Predict the 3D structure of the following.
Amino acid sequence: MSEKCYMCDMPGITVEHVPPKCLFPELKDAGINLRLNLITVPSCEEHNCKKSDDDEFLMVSIAGILGNNSIGYEHYNGKIQRALKRTSYKLLEKVFLKKRVVRLGNENKFIEVLWGTPDYKRLIDCFTHIAYGIHRHHFKASFSGSTEALLGFLHTNIPNPKVFKAFIREKAGLELADKTKHGDNPAVFYYQYTDPDQFGIYLVKLCFYQNVDVYISYMPSFSEKPFHIAFELMGLGCKTIITLGDKEFVFNSAVELDDPTLQSGVDGEEDDR
Ligand SMILES: [Zn+2]
């Protein structure tokens, strides 16, 4: 056997879990087996050991997110809190570039919520690795090309974040509606693939604790560069409306409000000149 690493051309001499095993609570903590048939791919030594730090980072970043199911919540309050205490919360410093703890509720009953700026670049990197691993597992072939990640659960500073996220969610939701959810521990993790579009681009949805959703698109190296006039306009900051089924998504509407001349142009009478 000489299978290649899921990330590079080196021999895959070790076994790598995707997503990392530490995201899946242990039997003794969860009371039920949430580690059924965990997904593994062959990995070279470099791509495997480089990741153990990242695995912990990812676990601390996403297990405690508000809105997760009870499995994620218990995991965060059990194993992860123990890990945090062990490191005197230094681990948290690594996860959040800026943070504060917010208490919700009254004195007797409250939950502590972390409110902060996560290391966005590192998160993207972690999820991209998972997307490569899942691709290898699902299609029995390594992915070659470029990927783009959208973290549906985070608020970011990219332009049009809210509308864009709602749009991707809606579009992916339509395309994924009849697609199988893969993964034997769906309460912790599952994934779904769309069919390739006319450009050969396809998308995976990674879902953790039934709440943390990540969308990653794959553009194979052989595919054409896509061109969509609506997205080009959005990039230029023009007000753009995209209709999907019976829903309308308005991009860059703030630009229009800031600029009365544009506003009147929209209402505008016909220009006959
Ligand atoms: Zn490698």
